[in-house]
Amino acid sequence: MRADRVFAYGAATGLLGDLLLGDPRRGHPVAAFGRTAGAVERMLWRDHRGWGALHTTVCVGGAGALAALANRGVRRSRAASIALTAAATWAVVGGTSLGREARAIGAALGAGDVEAARARLPHLCGRDPLALDRDGIARAVVESVAENTSDAVVGALVWGAAGGVPGLVAFRAVNTLDAMVGHRSARYRRYGWASARLDDVAGWPGARLTAALATVAGDDPRGAVRAWRTDARRHPSPNAGPVEASFAGSLGVRLGGTLSYAGRVEHRPVLNVGGRAVRVGDIERAVRLSRRVSWLALGVSAAGRLLAGRLLAGGPLPKGRTT
């Protein structure tokens, strides 16, 4: 079976597995990678960009190489190749867990238990929950759902379509490293620079596809396009900007504004200025939009891989042949 069909069948099975099972409670491969990356950091850390780049190379390169070896080992078996692709997809995407956490916080807010919502918020994002009221928590959840739709699902599918199992695994390694060392703290300002920049590059195509699909799958396509065009570039993140702006326009809400991370306050531009303030009910709407975007991304990625496979299969005729 051609590699394009292996990806289509395997990725669909893996995404369905995520829908039905969510993340494994124990022994998650991404958690194992995080522990390994932490051990490498303890050996290599210096307050220097070069050492951080070495850390990124060792961790991402190692994960990608292991995935390539596994892929090579099963390439003679159609069933094993599909199973490996499905397992890798299930391991690296996190759409179901994202939706569960968002809905749990929404349920707590709906029941009037703001303290319970604050306690769960760190499972979803790095905001300071004590600095947020009920509506602020709801806004943080919607923003996190938007951004993680790209990071946890769409980006992985895009790179899986481009590079198969190694592409899936390498993208998740890049994204995980950015979460670990890519932020602007005193410890990681230099050491995490390479991881942060690589994450920007790796996340670029998935973020644009996420934004485009959110305009198609949302309630207000024109509003999504307008917010994307006018506000995305004002966001400090080149990838979160298009995604959050398109979600804001699709849902008809305002995102962005003042944020607090561990006592550090940031004043970000407002996305979709003409929208209304986020309400608790918008959390469920954002989760449903995220789910639609994820399945559309699977279709686009699989179709793109199939089209590329057909084009490659229809290359130049052998010498001596005529049409």
UniProtKB/TrEMBL annotation:
Keywords: Cell membrane, Cobalamin biosynthesis, Membrane, Transmembrane, Transmembrane helix
Pathway(s) annotated for this protein in UniProt: Cofactor biosynthesis; adenosylcobalamin biosynthesis
Name of a matching Pfam family: CobD_Cbib
Keyword presence, Cell cycle: no
Record's subcellular location: Cell membrane
Topological type in the membrane: Multi-pass membrane protein
Keyword match Membrane: yes
Superkingdom of source: Bacteria
Coiled-coil region list: none
Similarity comment: family membership: Belongs to the CobD/CbiB family.
Described purpose of this protein according to its UniProt entry: Converts cobyric acid to cobinamide by the addition of aminopropanol on the F carboxylic group.
Annotated protein name in UniProt: Cobalamin biosynthesis protein CobD
Species for this entry: Streptomyces kaempferi
